[in-house]
From TrEMBL:
It comes from the Bacteria. Its cofactor is Zn(2+). The keyword rRNA processing does not apply. It holds the Pfam family ADH_zinc_N. Signal peptide: none annotated. InterPro entries: ADH-like_C, ADH-like_N, ADH_Zn_CS, ER, GroES-like_sf, NAD(P)-bd_dom_sf, Zn_alcohol_dh. Residues 15-350 form the Enoyl reductase (ER) domain. Keywords: Metal-binding, Oxidoreductase, Zinc. This is Alcohol dehydrogenase catalytic domain-containing protein.
Length: 354
């Protein structure tokens, strides 16, 4: 099926500190495809890290954008449950109807398109949501129960990764969970973990981020004013935390996590990557004798996206505080320049009326 829009303007990272807007062709709609008019797309840490040159783990040039939201314009003939006019958010492109998926070459989670995929127009791409339009399989598109501001709906994917990670450590009432870092992902981890009934303590050294976390009603340890490890132990009566979520990619954060943990059966969730790669920072024998459980987490599964869509769409998790700035699509370079400044949260690129 021919899309009613055949071309779109799309942003690419062409090189270090080089973002551009180009025109690309949209593919024809397969039976399960959906054409969406993008309203906004948030810039992820991994994307502005590539733009700044801090990260070099993906080939350039490349399309990007996986924290987007928009309005459905057209659906393929086999699409059910999504129709024109619906307000939706996107995830990593995932198409179980493709030849690749049927051959079994997919991962356990949505987001299986490989980095070496090359578009017809010559630009490398895995994600393509920082554009005015996108065509994706209905399996990677989620309909919100209510229309919320598009930049907030763009938290669908990051919140889904949080839901996925916390399922591994399974926080519950009576436990103490420490989240190291009050950046975007740290705050999201704390807000979701708090819904379990567990006590959640956030540690942070940035005064601005300490203030944001406190305004959100979170219990915060200001690591710039005290020894965060000692303070967590003091607040837990010397026992330590049942679980620690590391939402900062630093060796010091890893060291603090293990020092904050209770003596036996503590859990550590490595949520954040760091560049250069941080070290674990603990004697392996302590892991062995302490019967610790260590978890790595990345991306999310279908059920996590569904839950994330519910939490956002029903207003259960409020992310409005985590949108630092909004920039028009044509100011994509200015958006990246703002996003790389320390101390901020998400920068939204606006393609249309929210």
């Amino acid at each position: 099926m021919k899309p009613i829009v055949t071309e779109t303007r799309a942003a690419i990272i062409a090189g270090v500190r080089d973002a551009r807007i180009v025109t690309r062709r949209l593919r024809d709609l397969a039976p399960h495809d959906v054409l969406v008019k993008i309203l906004s797309c948030n810039l992820c840490t991994s994307e502005f890290g590539l733009w700044s040159g801090k990260r070099t783990n993906r080939p350039l040039p490349m399309t990007f954008g996986h924290e987007w939201a928009g309005e459905v314009l057209q659906v393929g003939e086999a699409v059910r449950g999504i129709e024109p006019g619906d307000f939706v958010g996107g995830s990593h492109e995932y198409d179980p109807y493709s030849d690749e998926a049927r051959a079994g070459r997919t991962s356990e989670a949505p987001g299986v398109k490989s980095y070496d995929t090359q578009w017809d127009d010559g630009y490398f791409g895995r994600y393509e949501g920082c554009a005015e339009h996108v065509v994706q399989s209905q399996e990677s598109i989620y309909k919100f129960a209510h229309r919320i501001p598009a930049p907030e709906a763009g938290f669908l994917e990051p919140l889904a990764t949080v839901v996925n990670g916390l399922r591994k450590i399974d926080p519950h009432e009576g436990e103490t969970i420490v989240v190291i870092g009050a950046g975007t992902m740290g705050v999201l981890n704390a807000l979701v973990a708090a819904r379990s009934g567990a006590r959640v303590i956030v540690t942070e050294v940035s005064p601005e981020k300490v203030g944001v976390a406190e305004r959100l009603g979170l219990e915060v340890v200001d690591g710039s004013a005290c020894d965060a490890v000692e303070e967590v132990r003091r607040r837990t009566g010397g026992r330590g935390a049942d679980s620690v979520v590391i939402a900062v990619g630093l060796t010091l954060a890893d060291q603090q996590a293990f020092a904050m943990l209770k003596k036996f059966h503590g859990k550590v969730l490595f949520f954040a990557a760091g560049y250069p790669a941080p070290e674990v920072g603990v004697d392996v024998n302590k892991i062995h004798y302490g019967k610790m459980e260590l978890y790595g987490t990345l991306m999310a599964d279908y059920v996590d996206f569904k839950e994330s869509c519910r939490l956002l769409g029903e207003g259960i998790i409020d992310v409005s505080t985590l949108v630092s700035a909004r920039y028009p699509f044509d100011d994509i370079t200015a958006a990246f320049e703002h996003a790389v400044q320390p101390g901020g949260y998400r920068t939204a690129v606006i393609m249309g009326k929210e």
